[in-house]
Automatic annotation (TrEMBL):
One of its GO terms (biological process) is proteolysis. GO terms for molecular function: serine-type carboxypeptidase activity. It comes from Sphenostylis stenocarpa. Belongs to the peptidase S10 family. It comes from the Eukaryota. This is Carboxypeptidase. The lineage of its organism: Eukaryota, Viridiplantae, Streptophyta, Embryophyta, Tracheophyta. Residues 1-29 form the signal peptide.
Amino acid sequence: MALSTTLTLSQVSLSLVLFFFTSLPPSYATSSFVHANSQQSRAEKLIRSFNLSPKDPVNIVKGDNGGFVSGKIVEKEFSFFGDSGPSIEDLGHHAGYYSLPNSKSARMFYFFFESRNKKDDPVVIWLTGGPGCGSEIALFYENGPFHIFNNLSLAWNDYGWDQGSNILFVDQPTGTGFSYSFDDTDIRHDEAGISNDLYDFLQEFFKAHPEFIKNDFYITGESYAGHYIPALASRVNQGNKENQGIHINLKGFAIGNGLTNPVIQFPAYPQFALDNGIITKAEYDDISKSIPKCEQAAKTCETQGGQSCEYALNICENIFNSILSIAGDINYYDIRKKCVGSLCYDFSNMETLLNLQNVKSALGVSDDLKFVSCSTTVYEAMVQDWMKNLEVGIPALLEDGIKLLVYAGEEDLICNWLGNSRWVYAMEWSGKNAFETSQTMKFVVDGVDAGSLNSYGPLSFLKVYEAGHMVPMDQPKAALQMLKSWMEGKLST
Ligand SMILES: *[C@@H]1O[C@H](CO)[C@@H](O)[C@H](O)[C@H]1NC(C)=O
């Protein structure tokens, strides 16, 4: 019953794709839906909204542990271009599995694309959000080496981030994409579990590719990765300081349209919606009345954790849902767009391609494994993590000279630039005042204003024009230039 109810609401839920899901706006909810407004129905919506249809909610495989050897990496080179392209060796495209040591039998899948430019380019890891969505969404639709056509042919992406980096795309947390386990206790629930897994993976990755250890290293990603990225940056920095294993040459981390500091970002929704003409002043006044309740609940989550965090998420989501109930069929990843029919964003080509037997075999993926683009199970397991404030570890990283770039496409509602700007400006660190008073500069691409930039020392905030939630998809050239000049320390020159 809940299922068919949500299906009739598809016009709204379809716009809601990938990286985030939320409950439906109250005015669209029938009473039967309100009762079914569980994590499960929230998660199911994410799948439908992206035109994604994984058969299974998560990659937990039945059987014994399949010869699990803790800490082992198994990697192969592959080519999606067949005989028509460069040789497999020249291409430097790798796909692999890493057996997570702190698990019963979890295997983490990743792609590694060597730079098309030069091997001593930085190593970059990209993390897609969800929580629970595979990084292949970025690989094929944002900043990966190739784009995918409707006939499932691939073409080089001129603005793939492998034009300026050696880039890793990882399916995580466990259960996402082609990552899997035989044991459902391997599903992660918090940033500690996630960042430890990624840190262990990076250690083994650099052991397998020692020629890249000396390269600069950057952590990047989008949306819910606004949680993963600072957590991983802190974990890597800690490992370096404590001389754990290989020193990872961490130089910076970049968060794109992320969710990092919820107690600031949720209350920014009404202002952003008012400024962009999505709601009226009267509606703004009305919706803003729920802000204190949200802030209170979010603060309780920070001190008490556990169930109180799930409660805070439910409370704070009401702000967003109230706006959506007024906005109707708006695409809340890009407010310039309406979400009509099922084509808001359609990532089904990726799913079809990755489930082809010859593709799986080229990637070293077992034929009986299905690609889980966004896992409902992984999403649900993270509900107590959403409202956590991941800004808390960032000042220490800045003081250690590790750079942070927060960038945001200005047309995104769900992780809008305003909320991101607010937490970046509110952050307490030694450069706070200098950052606050920094002059706003133009970010120019091909002689055209592509964004506005504030910068001081290791901290930069970039608002990207004419882009929604997925900046590298909407402004591929600007996104590549942003990455390269930021890594070179030239973003503000
Ligand atoms: C697939 O589609 C693209 C774009 O429409 C086209 O250029 C290409 O030739 C097609 N490939 C095949 C094998 O049909």
